Amino acid sequence: MSTILACTDGSLYSPSVYKHAAWAAKRMDAGVQVLHMLNPHHEDPKTHDFSGSIGFGAKSALLQELVELEAANARIAQKRGQAILDDAESVLSDEGLSQIESMQKHGKLSDEISTYEDRADLVVIGKRGNNADFEKGHLGTNLERVIRSCQHPVLVASREFAEPTNFMLAYDGGKSAKKALEYICQNSLLKGLKCYLVSVGSADAFQASNQEAAAKLEAAGFTVDASVLPGAPEEVLVEFVDRIPVDLLVMGAYGHSHIRNLIVGSTTTNIIRSVHHPVLLFR
Predict the structure, then answer these.
(1) Tally of CB atoms within 10 A around 138
(2) 3-state secondary structure of 5
């Protein structure tokens, strides 16, 4: 049975993460694993040495009080984490899922994601987490490293969930774009949705690969609206998503054109930040 890994930190995006995961699970006939990572600072409070931070001659009673305070913080963090997982299970159950597993682990998601991603067919994560600056539009601190670490597709959930009726594949003919194309054709996740196939650049450079991709999608049963548009990918793709409008953006995490600066460069980071829809990314 396929598995969806839903990563949560209890932020404002978490309910949307659960609903995106439930949508994907139903379309893929998959179960859902919910992963919550505990703050590593609360992992083992009794091993901390506070003597250097409070100066020479500190009383042992004060040291003990600090240790107890840390232990209390750890217990609170664990209870908060369990409450987050209980809420996730409740939402997923309400969405009609029965194959649900929850995990609470110590550490940072960005450091540990490869351990758990190995067991999943799709990873779902919110665009922003508790540490993101919403006013400045910053992305979640874990997001870029998670995408770079995952070998499986990563679905970046938008603030609000709406069931997609169409999707856009940003296609440049590169390795990750071809991986996305094969996934779309072979996996049930996007079956039945209308596809907008968009390549950005000159027609001479992209027309042939665009037509080839369109033929594969049509052979897989998709209704395809294919186009090659001039301009900068960051501007063209965001404008296209808003104008149609597109419900889900699908793109490769690395390519051989302007889009190859995904995540590390500004192009994809700005696209993810700018669009108000979920983004499905492939490495």
Answers:
(1) 14
(2) strand
Place of tokens 């067919």: 121
- 164-278 has the same fold as 1-162: yes
Sign of CA dihedral 215, 218, 222, 223: positive
Domain 1-162: give its CATH code.
3.40.50.620
- Specify the CATH class of 164-278 in words: alpha beta
Domain locations along the chain = 1-162, 164-278
pTM: 0.84
Q: Categorize the per-residue pLDDT at 58 as very low, low, confident or very high, splitting at 50, 70 and 90.
A: low
231: left (phi over 0), alpha (psi -120 to 50) or beta: left
The tokens describing 165, both together, are 């009726």
Q: How many CB atoms lie within 10 A of CB 261?
A: 16
Confidence of residue 137 (pLDDT cuts 50, 70, 90): very low
What pLDDT digit, counting tens, does each position of 139-167 carry?
A: 656 677 788 788 899 999 999 999 999 99
Cα gap 121→98, rounded to integer Å: 18
CA angle (238, 244, 245) in 5-degree steps: 75
